[in-house]
Design brief:
Layout lengths: L6 E5 L3 H12 L3 E5 L11 E4 L1 H9 L3 H6 L1 E3 L2 E6 L5 E6 L10 E4 H14 L3 E3 L4 E5 L5 E4 L4 E3 L2 E4 L8 H4 L6 E13 L7 E7 L2 E8 L4 E9 L14 H7 L5 H7 L6 E7 L7 E2 L2 E3 L14 H18 L3 H30 L5 H16 L1 H6 L2 H4 L9
Parallel strand pairs: 1-2, 1-12, 2-8, 5-14, 12-19
Antiparallel strand pairs: 3-7, 4-7, 5-6, 9-10, 10-11, 13-16, 13-17, 14-15, 15-16, 18-19
Helix pairs in contact: 1-4, 1-8, 2-8, 8-9
């Protein structure tokens, strides 16, 4: 299908939406991104771009720019939070030379994508809060200002509170996982290496990794609790609450958290994967279609994979409807596998002291020491996947 004949509107100017706009524009589509914020930016946080997500960045011609703004990861280190001792290591230096793994500040990736999109001719409109979307052969997007925009295809890349998802799927209430997460960025005062360190403890864990030039650390800490917090990244908490939650962890964790100020806090909820990702003139991608818990570092990577496949499926199809059907068919099983793997990680990170944790940690440690290649091969299904080479 000639995408040059299509006028496509992407709702949401985050990583998934901007990647989708770029991929569609490269196929010739006229693309407009509607972003409700006053600027294309992101609050301070880090993300991990694993090799599968990097394939999309490479195909868009942006890998060099990403590398210049990132820290190349050398390992994922699972550690005993109480002692700081390493339990097991995923040695990322053993990845094939063409599979790289980066830690990047979310704002830097968003800036990279938005600049590339504008340079390629994508129109980015700010302060565009969507009120309603009316499906149809040419769907209408009604803005909070009362303005209406008609388009050939409206793509909901607008996250867990998507305005498009309810038009395609019956309302399904998410359930609280019994976990709350904090996040913040602090100075790298401990000489933290280019590793993602997962400090594991009973009912809680903390992930840290360096950003930009290595002088700062991204911190995400998760605690199981009965009392839930709102599902929002805009709330902040007293840093003493975070420090108290990890008081039983080792001295390095204490030094890192001593620098935390007003960390963000949000409740972790499980949302079902949307049954329908497309309808008449509508499509979903990223968290709007399949929110995932942050325990496999794949949220942004799945959104970028979605974006590439959506554009590719449309370009290969005879018409929009068959292209959107192919997009869902190519993506749904993979994201379900990723979401399930992320959920299992949460349980494994939070094991209480006892025979189960001892056996699990011993087995992981033995595998990573005796057969590090086999340890890494367990993730081939995830990291070696390349959506840019898929024939659909």
């Amino acid at each position: 299908m000639d995408l040059g004949a299509l006028d496509i509107t992407v709702i949401g100017g985050g990583i998934g939406g901007l990647t989708c706009a770029l991929a569609l524009r490269r196929h010739g589509a006229k693309v407009t991104v509607l972003e409700q914020a006053e600027a294309i930016t992101e609050v301070g946080a880090g993300i991990q771009v694993s090799p599968n997500g990097l394939r999309v960045i490479e195909a868009l011609g942006l890998a060099g720019d990403l590398a210049a703004r990132s820290v190349q990861a050398r390992a994922v280190s699972l550690r005993n939070g109480g002692t700081g001792a390493e339990v097991a290591r995923l040695d990322l230096t053993r990845l094939p030379a063409d599979q790289r793994y980066f830690f990047v500040h979310r704002a830097d990736l968003v800036d990279l994508l938005s600049t590339a999109a504008r340079d390629l001719g994508v129109t980015v409109r700010l302060l565009q809060r969507v009120d309603t979307v009316v499906p149809g052969t040419r769907p209408s997007i009604v803005l909070a200002t009362g303005d209406t925009r008609e388009t050939d295809l409206a793509i909901g890349a607008d996250g867990i509170h998507s305005s498009v998802r309810p038009l395609l799927n019956a309302a399904q209430k998410p359930f609280f996982t019994g976990q709350v997460a904090w996040r913040c960025i602090v100075p790298n005062s401990t000489g933290h290496p280019a590793h993602a360190r997962v400090q594991m403890g009973p009912g809680r864990h903390m992930v840290t990794y360096p950003l930009r030039d290595g002088t700062s650390l991204n911190v995400v800490a998760v605690e199981e609790r009965a009392e839930w917090a709102a599902e929002s990244w805009s709330q902040t908490d007293d840093a003493d609450n975070l420090r108290r939650a990890f008081a039983g962890f080792d001295a390095e964790v204490h030094r890192i958290l001593s620098q935390a100020e007003a960390p963000g806090v949000w409740g972790l909820f499980r949302h079902p994967v949307a049954a329908r990702w497309y309808g008449k003139g509508l499509a979903l991608l990223g968290d709007a279609a399949h929110p995932t818990l942050p325990f496999l570092a794949q949220g942004a990577n799945m959104a970028m994979e979605d974006a590439w496949v959506l554009a590719d499926a449309l370009a290969r199809a005879d018409d929009t409807d068959s292209g959107l059907a192919a997009y869902q068919a190519r993506r749904k099983a993979r994201v379900i596998r990723v979401i399930d793997a992320a959920s299992k990680n949460a349980r494994n990170y939070h094991l209480a002291p006892g025979p189960v944790r001892f056996a699990a940690h011993t087995a992981l440690g033995l595998l990573s020491r005796v057969s590090p290649g086999q340890m890494l091969a367990r993730f081939d299904w995830l990291y070696a996947h390349d959506v840019t080479q898929s024939e659909g």
